[in-house]
Predict the structure.
Amino acid sequence: MTKVNLKLFRKKNTVDKIRDIFNKENDFLIVTHKNADVDGIGSALALKYYLKERNKNVKIGCESLNSQAKIILDNLNEKIDYFHYTEDFRNLIVVDTSSIKKLGIFEETVKKAENVIVIDHHEKDEYMEKFLYYNKNLTSNAEIIYKLFPSNNEKYLKAILAGIIADTGLFKYADQNTFRTILDILKKGIDFQEVLSILKEDMSRSKKIAILKAFKRMKIYYIKDLIVVTTRIGAYEGIVARSLLDMGADIAFVANKDRISSRAKNNVIEKGINLAEIMQSLEKGDGGGHKAAAGAENIEDVEKAMKKCVSMIKERLDKNGSGN
């Protein structure tokens, strides 16, 4: 390990500081949020490939994975090195994680690491500011990795592309910068259809039943020209929330035992609604995310919390002159 010149280090911008650590250190643990999605895993894998090209020792850790993330790992012939916190790491990189609590058991690694780098694209978190924190409001975390730490490695490019496709909801939340990035990746010879086919949702019988049950339990609120729905389900909250939007809802809140997932259409965001801010406002819960897609965990009473969400939607629309 080479000593860092602290005087020079403090004058540099965040990205240069991160690159300095990447150059001078040799061993890294990359972690992402529990129930990691394709963007979290894709970002972690891409950064791993980038660092491996520079002869660094890199491990990946997360508490749990969603089904699509497992498929990406299988297709890239990769694995998670740690599902449990077993040892201390001097250098920790946190990706696609809106708050430290979302790391689950890996929250402990943050307290023990000497260098903590956070690369994220969610709404800013004040607590994260104490670390080496790069936050940019792009449509996916993978896009940040691609712009800051590029590589032409095939597996790297597939991991990035998968993360972008998944986190934009098959481009529902994409913008012009997203498509520029996609075009740049495709020019390097990556087969778009191959990556897309990996990500196509396997609508198993259990997922279909979950969606139908959610529809049956749904409560509908009419707030001026918006349709806001709430429901409860045992699993697949994100899939259910997206299905509710596809069926006509403008905003959907879907609760599990102790967590809520929320989704909103673009016309809702244009009215000044920020779901991440609403999730963060819930009492005794750990919330965060994006304006159009957010969630909260560790909620004691999800029914009460969903009613609060609906109430906050109305309050914000009233404040912006569009509530009823």
Summary: The chain has two domains: 8-199, 205-319. The CA atoms of residues 119 and 134 lie 5 Å apart. The chain has 14 helices and eleven strands.
